[in-house]
Amino acid sequence: MTTRVLSGGESAAPSPHPLDSAAWASLTGVHARFALGQGRARRYPADVSPFAAVASFEDDRAWADLRELYTDGEVAGLAGPPGFTRAVPCGWGLEGVVPGVQLVATDALWSARADDAFVLGAADAPEAVDLVVRTEPGPFRPRTYQLGTYLGLRRDGALVAMAGERLHPTGWTEISAVCTDPAYRRQGLATRLVRAVAELARGRGETPFLHTGATNSRAISLYLAMGFELRREVEFAALRAC
């Protein structure tokens, strides 16, 4: 967080880091073209991403604005600091919580193009959704590929590995949907794609970051070895409007 100094030398309240609420920073910034809602809440269209965001979890008006964006039975995905779901007001039912971690790239991360990778488009979306369903790296919807550049690798004509750009706070790019078909694992395919997506981000002067489950020790160890560092713990929650 950064602290603003007012005229006269008085310090104002610290400004939150954009990665402290990456979805909010994306939906009110680079991804504003996708954003549904106004006031103090935003969401992505359901076929793009399940994620939504509020300006503050402690703001009753923000929660009310969010509720107006969902019909009964719809599920909103939110990410926040550990324990944020304790502040969920009436009108929402907690479907599930997954502890996670946020990692950011350091200068130690070596990024490089993957010349045999291709950019996923509309025709590839069904295969991408199927690969995500089978490997469970996180949510991926039919139009998620529109959020940024998603790269894939094919073997014998089939999509076997992918990774791409999801949340996009100004100056940052989230690497997401990192997955490999089980039959093609331990060949370094996902690692190559993470490096390639990181190269795209750095080419725009942005810093890569990513999220993974707190219990996914194998992925965390891999990302640390690649040159990412742990920034913070997060909590992912699915809330059903009721």
List keywords for this structure.
242 residues, alpha+beta, 8-stranded mixed β-sheet, two-stranded antiparallel ribbon, 21% helix, disordered N terminus
What's the short version?
21% of the residues lie in helices and 30% in strands. By secondary structure, it is α+β, with helices and mostly antiparallel strands.
Q: What do you see in this structure?
A:
With 242 residues, the protein is α+β, with helices and mostly antiparallel strands. It is built from 5 helices and 10 strands; from the N terminus they run αββαβββαβββαβαβ. The chain has an 8-stranded mixed β-sheet with strand order 3-10-4-9-8-7-6-5, with helices on both faces. A two-stranded antiparallel sheet has the order 1-2. A hairpin with an 8-residue loop joins strand 1 and strand 2. The radius of gyration is 18 Å and the shape is globular. The two termini are 35 Å apart. Mean pLDDT is 94; it is low at 2-13.
Give the helices and strands, then pairings:
Elements (H helix, E strand, L loop, with lengths): L21 H6 L13 E3 L8 E3 L5 H8 L7 E6 L11 E14 L12 E2 L5 H11 L14 E6 L2 E8 L6 E9 L8 H15 L3 E7 L3 H10 L1 E14 L1
Parallel strand pairs: 8-9
Antiparallel strand pairs: 1-2, 3-10, 4-9, 4-10, 5-6, 6-7, 7-8
